[in-house]
Amino acid sequence: MNIKDDYKLVLDLFDWSCIRRYPSLEARCIVIQIAVAAKDPKMAQELFREFWAKPSSDVSFSFSRVLEKLIYTYKDWGSNPYVFDIFFQVLTEAGILDDARKLFDKMLNYGLVLSVDSCNLFLSRLSNSINGPKMALKVFREFSEAGISWNTASYNIMIHSLCQIGKVKEAHSLVLQMEFRGCIPDAISYSTVISGYCDAKELRLMLKVLEDMQLKGLKPNAYTFNSIILLLCNTGKVVDAEKVLREMISRGIIPDNVVYTTLIDGFSKNGNVAAAVRMYNEMQSQNIVPDFIAYTALIWGLCQNEKVAEADKLFNEMLSIGLKPDEFTYTTLIDAYCKTGDIKMAFFLHNEMVQMGLIPNVVTYTALVDGLCKQGDVDAANELLQEMREKGLVLNIYTYNSLLNGLCKSGNIGQAVKLMEDMEVAGIQPDVYTYTSLMDAYCKSGEMVKAHQLLREMLHKGIQPTAVTFNVLMNGFCISGMLEDGEKLLHWMLEKGIMPNATTYNSLMKQYCVRNNMRTATEIYRGMAHLGVTPNGNSYNILIRGHCKARNMKEAWFLHKEMVKKGFDPTVDTYHSLIKGFIKRKKYLEARVLFKEMRSKGFLVDKELYLIFADMNYAEGNIDTTLELCDEAIENCFTDKTKGVKT
């Protein structure tokens, strides 16, 4: 008691006593009181922590005994209420939240309200615990009633808690109420709500909060921009996401790896791989090293756009900087090589991933099965399926469908039907793709009755046919000469509210054009337009060739101009039909224009047209052009040098 005002001497005496025996609880509480009075909160915190960091066999070191001794020593040794704040903070940091709450209530009974900073710490720790956000909201209300004057940091914790449990609109409402309660929302308040709306994919509401934030003169931070970019990418608005990136950079905020990776992934999934590559290059120019996720996202995008060589180059670059690909990366490349027909490279990658200790999954094997089937090697695909079973992999619908499609393509319809039965025995129900593949095989073999039976079976099982299913059936009717059945199918689709697409109509138009029935073909085309079905390039090519064959060159020329205007390219057969049609009608000017256009696009001109235009130019005295055409004809029509020429 005599030396309590000499803080240094107190600490020296305490250290001396600790060497000889463990100080009593009362002695430690006395030193804590003196430390707080001497404005040394760190020492007080350290001594409090030792109660739980170095537990004693002395039962008196419980929460209730410590609090009792603190109250007992308070008046004579310090009389600074901040000691209870420090005790509350230490309990909170240690995660002893129940005792911290008891301390708050006990102090309230003594008329002492703890500081808002201490209460904020309690709220923050509580909100991050199990079921914490709801408890934090409850405590927020109760502490308010007890006299705590919450500040902006307090509200921000509550806004975060509400967003955590999905109550973003309530969080937004709390931001709007803050000013009426004497607190000014800051950038964190708005950014947290923006992030919440981003997680909930509420783009319109997020943009409204962003606008309000800027009207208040608050600047979005990196966290805010990251959340907005992620939401825009997830909702397919990747171009807008890049605009946000540009605004972010213009404000002097440097985007990080996560932002660029989000944009690379967004552009890749949106099919704009060129923009994804541009983001990747920009990322490197900013000396931001792409991580595994960025590489994988870009490799996937390149593979989806059939840029396998570029994807492989990126894959090797990824390996060279020490990043290890996973099963998804390898499977993405394996699937891409299978689709391009390079089965050898696909299996090389398969073996490489196994050597690296990665286990191929059912998706990996399905890609390989599909690749083998597309090459017609159904036996090897079957062997691979057996290997999958031996490894304990459960075959999925995609694996079965790949093999079934391969069997159908190779003409093994009987085996395909047997495989479909095996699927059902294995507990895997055939889907629309299964039925469509089998229907296509029946249609191509002229077994339209069986194809139609499959359609009825699908409908009976509640499997909804797609436009592709009906197109397969329509094409079957048409190539079998059953045009009336094809038209009945079209009417039935329309009655059932199933919208046909351009391919559906093309099958019918093609067969009527083959039969020189251009009146009916034109009626079908008009009916298609009337329903709002947009014709594709094949629609125009079919009709143009049909009109040329029927010598309706005026209609053919009109359709040609319309298709070019819409961005479609005529095929080589369409060019031949138009040019020969114009020549027969002595429309040489139009024929010359098309002939020149055709050659400039690199299409393979047939021998007959070369001879016609060579003779035409010779008759006109254009010897140089004649010789040029002769040389071109010899190179393209009489040698093997036709590689790379469009057909």
UniProtKB/TrEMBL annotation:
InterPro entries linked: PPR_rpt (IPR002885), TPR-like_helical_dom_sf (IPR011990)
PPR repeats: 80-114, 151-185, 186-220, 221-255, 256-290, 291-325, 326-360, 361-395, 396-430, 431-465, 466-500, 501-535, 536-570, 571-605
Superkingdom of origin: Eukaryota
Cited SUPFAM superfamilies: HCP-like (SSF81901)
Transmembrane segments: none
Keywords from the named record: Repeat
Pfam family, one: PPR
Family: Belongs to the PPR family. P subfamily.
NCBIfam families recorded: PPR (TIGR00756)
Name under which the protein is recorded: Pentatricopeptide repeat-containing protein
Source organism (scientific name): Abeliophyllum distichum
